[in-house]
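Shape matters. Shown next:

___
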Amino acid sequence: MKHLIPVLTTLLCVSFYSQASTTVAGKTILARGAVLATDAESAQQRTLKRRDTVYGVDKITTGEKSKAQFSMSDGGLIALKENSELNIANYEFNTMTQQGSASIELIKGGLRSISGVIKKNGGAFSVKTPVGSIGIRGTHFELQLIDGDMYVAVWDGAIDLTLEDQSVVSLGSNEPFSFAQVTSLGRVIKTTQAPAVFTQTIATISDDTSAEQPTEQQSIVQNNTSEKTTDADISITDVYAQQQFQAVNDATLIDQIAQRQGVFNYQATSFDVSSSLGVVSDFSMSMSVDFDNGTVPDGEISFNDAGGNWYAAYSGLIDLTKLDLAVTFASHNNNKATGQIDAVFLNDIDTITGDFSLSEINNPAVNAGGDFRLEP
């Protein structure tokens, strides 16, 4: 009997750690560059790829020019930026009871998170950071650590950040501010608009002890980019944002994208295109989507106007329900051109909608663009 007790204790410990090691926290829906997961108990390391499982004891790291996105077991989403390190201290969700709890720790770098069913159903969800612990009230938020300072953006919902001195900073819905910078010394600088690290815009700042609403003299906004945002850009961005918020309640579309295999070719089924030179004709657009690798290997746009043929080639990546695309070559007749293209999966993976704009490099007044809808 004396010998049996240590044996039973050992078996129980092995069983406990084995169960902890195999608790599924989520799955990888995008992995670009060096994305590694290290088992906190065994120290075993593995490279994460699309569709790979992440567990409740994993420490996830991304390297230079690398990023990763995860669909969590409760339908939540976590996106890691480059040079980041994240501990999944606990992520448990019971699909039968729809209850659970989660605790993650951002050690360095940055993340974006949309909370899922755990928080929706009142479960505990916390994020530990070097400057304090964040309690979530059901939200879409973003964090970035730079040189000991932490930048915070709350895009939807609200958070409560408890600092080391136990003071609490609340941001988001029903709060005066949605953005903040917390310095390594604990000073809180609240902002009325997102800090430059998130949007390239430096906005009004107000110390934690200032009045709840900034005065006119305090409101100073400096834009660091000369790019002009069009109505079309805003519409696609809005569609993408709506899809991400919907994913909190229904991750069907993201799951469909993650589970589909093979290369699918999409063609334009409807479009609305115009040119500065008048009537457009012979419009065609194609896009190949490689769901196995999460990429858009190639795509083409072609149409004619009074000045000749417009042509553009593009490629890119799948980024959740958005297609992160870049024009690799463009021309108008014999003139070189440039442009941009935005697209998202709309409601299902068999429909892609978006917009594009093209212009001659040496004569930007000659331009064209419009909206499109693609289907296999």
